[in-house]
Structures are given as structure tokens and as C-alpha cells.
Amino acid sequence: MDINGLSAIVTGGASGLGKATAMMLAAQGAKVAIFDLNEEAGKAVASELGGIYVGVNVADDASVAAGLDMVEAAHGVARILVNCAGVAPAIKTVGKENVPHPLDTFAKTVTVNLIGTFNVISKFSARLAAAEEIDGERGVIVNTASVAAYDGQIGQAAYSASKGGVVGMTLPIARDLAQHKIRVMTIAPGIFLTPMLEAFPQNVKDALGAQVPHPSRLGKPAEYAQLVESIVRNPMLNGDVIRLDGAIRMAPR
Ligand SMILES: NC(=O)c1ccc[n+]([C@@H]2O[C@H](COP(=O)([O-])OP(=O)(O)OC[C@H]3O[C@@H](n4cnc5c(N)ncnc54)[C@H](O)[C@@H]3O)[C@@H](O)[C@H]2O)c1
């Protein structure tokens, strides 16, 4: 799809991979809406790129429905959806002094990363299904999993479960939405230099980068955004997961 002039939504667009994607889409001429819980950062990014910030909790039914109403009123029906909102706790299944993993944290991780992603996909697609086709398709969805879906590390049971769910639902959703001519792809990033990692000391960042076979460094958010652009533009990309990781296979810790 040609991006220019289309209405686009980026969840988690206030920060990191989502922010880089929102900037890329705006630079390509899209009308961008950011769905995020971080109002201050979301508004700052929206004003920088000339789009809108909508305070949305992706895991909440009514919040997503209201957010989609606002986008449609401001920019028209959204054609591009990039799901980047996510949380990443690090807790072992059995912790110190044999304390079990708190169930509420496990549930919250799955609720935001997996159920939240599906919540936005289904509501976005239901509206888009009624829109006109453009050059033989209606729109494109890009989800964000993680290499932790395949090689999750110690402490990543909840995170890996949530991202494994995103990987697993990619093909059936693409099959469901084929009749509506909406494509669905998922990116599984390796280690990217986003605010979460920027706070780490330089020697820790260097050590993480050194684990990547080639290029031996952390990924740049703009490189994630570049793959989103390719996915949106290439009409044959559908129903699959692309690892974007410099060939890293994560060690247990
Ligand atoms: N950075 C990495 O190395 C990396 C690697 C693999 C996968 N990922 C995934 O990429 C995505 C983006 O990661 P990032 O590093 O840019 O993280 P980030 O923390 O910089 O950004 C995530 C954004 O999601 C928002 N968010 C969280 N919960 C939300 C909710 N319920 N509703 C709406 N917004 C919510 C946050 O406010 C934040 O702005 C995440 O899904 C993450 O799991 C990141």
C-alpha cells in the first residue's frame, strides 16, 4: 500500500519502536494517531509529527472503541495499524525464598501484550472491513512479538507466553481477514536500543550488543520502522512472522 495520505494508528507510539514507526509513517505522508497510556510523551510525539495523541489502554474494550471513534473523526477510517504497546516484566517462575511468580503480573503481561493486541486488531478490522478497497486491498496490520517468543530467557515466562501468543495468532488472523483484504504480519525484534535499554550503563549495552552475531550491536528503532514500511508497501507479505535480530539466539540469561 502507498502510505501517503492514509490514516494510521500506532499503539505504544509514545516511546521506542512505536515512536520511530510513528515518525516514519508521518514522514511518508500518513495521518498518524498514537494510542498510548503515557499522555505527556504521547502528546509530545504527536505534536512533533503533526498527528494526534489518544489516551487508550489497549487492553480495555471501551477505551479502544472510543479511540477508534476519535481517529475516524479526525483522520478517516484507519488503514494501517502497528501494535507496539507492551510491557516486559522479569520474574522467575519460582523466585527467592521459593516464592511463586505473582499470578497478577503474569495475567497483566498476557492481558496487555496478547489480549490488548487482539483487542485493537479486531476492532480496527471490523471498521476497515466496510471501507473501499485501494489497489486491491483495504489495509495492513503489523504486530510486535519478540525473539523471546522462541528463546525466552530466565525470568521471561510471562513475557514469552504473551509474545508466543502473538506469533501463534498471526496466521489465523491473516486467514480470517483475507476475505476483507486486510494483511497481518508480525515482527519479532531482537534487542533494540529503546528507552528501556538506554538507561543501562554503557558496558551493559556493549555486552548485549556483542551477543548479536552480525551486525554486532543493538538494533536501532529506525530499523524496526524500516521493516514496517516494507511490510506495508509489499502486498505479498501476509500471515508470517519476521525475526529482526541480527541472527541472535538468546542464551538462558
Ligand atoms: N526494545 C526491545 O529490545 C524489544 C525487543 C523485542 C520486542 N519488543 C517489543 O516491542 C514493543 C515496543 O517496545 P519498546 O522497547 O519500544 O518499549 P517502550 O517501553 O519504549 O514503549 C512501549 C509503550 O507502550 C505503552 N503501553 C504500555 N502498556 C500500554 C497499554 N496497556 N495501552 C497503551 N499503551 C501501553 C507505554 O506507555 C510505552 O509508551 C513492545 O511490545 C516490546 O515488548 C521490544
List keywords for this structure.
binds nicotinamide-adenine-dinucleotide, 7-stranded parallel β-sheet, 253 residues, 7 strands, alpha/beta, 9 helices, Rossmann fold, oxidoreductase
Instruction: Tell me the count of domains.
Output: 1
CATH superfamily: NAD(P)-binding Rossmann-like Domain
Number of strands: 7
Strand order of the largest sheet: 3-2-1-4-5-6-7
| Number of contiguous helices | 9
User: What distance lies between the first and last C-alpha atoms, to the nearest angstrom?
Assistant: 40 Å
| Overall form | globular
CATH-assigned fold name: Rossmann fold
Structural class: alpha/beta
Ligands and ions found:
nicotinamide-adenine-dinucleotide
How would you describe this protein?
This protein is of the alpha/beta class. The chain has one domain (7-244): Rossmann fold, CATH 3.40.50. Helices cover 46% and strands 15% of the residues. The protein has helices spanning 16-27, 39-49, 61-75, 103-128, 148-151, 157-178, 195-198, 202-210, 221-233, and strands spanning 7-11, 31-36, 52-55, 80-83, 139-144, 182-189, 240-244. A seven-stranded parallel sheet has the order 3-2-1-4-5-6-7, with helices on both faces. Strand 2, helix 2 and strand 3 (52-55) form a beta-alpha-beta unit. Helix 4 (103-128) runs parallel beside helix 6 (157-178). The radius of gyration is 18 Å and the shape is globular. The relative contact order is 0.15. The structure holds nicotinamide-adenine-dinucleotide.
